[in-house]
Amino acid sequence: MIRAVLSLLLVLGAISSAFSAGDKKYIPKTGKRIPQTLSRGWGDQLIWAQTYEEALYWSRSKNKPLLVLFHLEDCPHSQAMRKVIANSYEIQKILDEEFIVLNLVYETTDKNLTPDGQYVPRFLFVDPSMTVRADIVGPYGNRLYAYEPQDLDVLKKSMEKAKKLLKVEL
Amino acid sequence: MIRAVLSLLLVLGAISSAFSAGDKKYIPKTGKRIPQTLSRGWGDQLIWAQTYEEALYWSRSKNKPLLVLFHLEDCPHSQAMRKVIANSYEIQKILDEEFIVLNLVYETTDKNLTPDGQYVPRFLFVDPSMTVRADIVGPYGNRLYAYEPQDLDVLKKSMEKAKKLLKVEL
Questions:
Q1: Which residues on chain B place their C-beta less than 8 Å from a C-beta of chain A?
Q2: Whole-number Å distance between alpha carbons of A141 and A145
Q3: DSSP 3-state assignment of B70?
Q4: pLDDT given at position A64
Q5: What is the pLDDT of residue B167?
Q6: Is residue A14, in this structure, part of any structural domain at all?
């Protein structure tokens, strides 16, 4: 009887070690993390470009304007804007169907994306001809490309402007 | 009795429309999408930089080497490498604790990241001094920065080399 129990224990031990050896998943010492999303909370249903280069390529090839959205995870103004944009059915739908979207928490090396300096949140539109639309601005004179949560209608107007593509004769 | 039922229906109708008006979540016509992750399957527990600029900044400020991993979602070689790397406890742990990591599905404009051309998968190490380590190569003469699933030990040796930081006297 004791031998039978021992054999059973050995078999069980072999099974459990076989399972743990190959399939040991890495978990950081600090605990399991929630996978990072490319949306960073600005709309999980949108297809986000990862980099400016990728976004420009998509914009050109699909002939859709690009919205580049600079923000910071810890900035309360960014968080407030993120909340209203992520929860706006209308804006999400327009962005999904008619725009290429990119959100960045880090500045690029392209100076055209900082027409009046680096700040967040900052919304810049780029034409499929790869022209940064510095003419499409929000309601604030000191930070031309900033929008606050109460400015959704201004943002929608800016999006309308961006959709009227620049005619470029090549 | 009929009036009571009608009132009840009106109240129920009002409640349901109140719910649907404010909280209507955007779902694309093509159906609900799975949110994109920054890991793109290469290790959900790692903290991935989004862009090369961000990765360089982290590498410099944390004094850790950077691994830039070029791949494509539809490339079978990328998929095979992704599987073995995502499932390797050892590689995930080293990458998490001792490296800055960036995976890109699109080329950057920096020519230093294409020492022998553009192909995927391609593994390039960058020193915290912002020097691309073109000297750290895999086992293939025709594609110096490529590794196949059976080359995990070579990749680990490359990672060891990258951890020996270049001494830069400024």
A1: 23-28, 32-33, 35-39, 43-45, 47-48, 50-54, 57, 87, 89, 92-93, 96, 104-109
A2: 9
A3: strand
A4: 98
A5: 77
A6: no
State how far Cα B105 lies from the chain centre: 9
Residues of chain A with pLDDT under 70: 1-23, 168-170
Contact call for B33 and A47, based on CB within 8 A: yes
Instruction: Quote the CA–CA distance of A129 and A166 in Å, as a whole number.
Output: 7
Which of B32, B45, B92 lies closest to A45 in CB terms?
A: B32
- Confidence label for B122 from pLDDT (cuts 50, 70 and 90): very high
Residues of B in contact with A39 (CB under 8 A): 35-36
Nearest CB neighbour to B35, from listed A23, A28, A44: A44
CATH number assigned to the domain comprising residue B103:
3.40.30.10
Q: Would strands B66-70 and B48-49 be described as parallel, antiparallel, or unpaired?
A: unpaired
Question: How confident is the prediction for chain B on average, in pLDDT?
Answer: 90
Is B3 among the domain residues?
no
Task: Name the residue range of residue B84's domain.
Answer: 26-169
In a domain, B9, yes or no: no
The minimum CA-CA distance between B142 and chain A, rounded to whole Å, is: 27
Q: Is residue B150 part of a domain?
A: yes
SS3 (DSSP) at A91? helix
Quote the minimal CA–CA distance from B15 to chain A in Å: 20
Closest B-chain CA to A104: B50
Which among A26, A47, A105 is the nearest to B50, CB-wise? A105
Number of separate domains in chain B: 1
Query: Distance of alpha carbon B132 from its chain centroid, rounded?
Result: 19
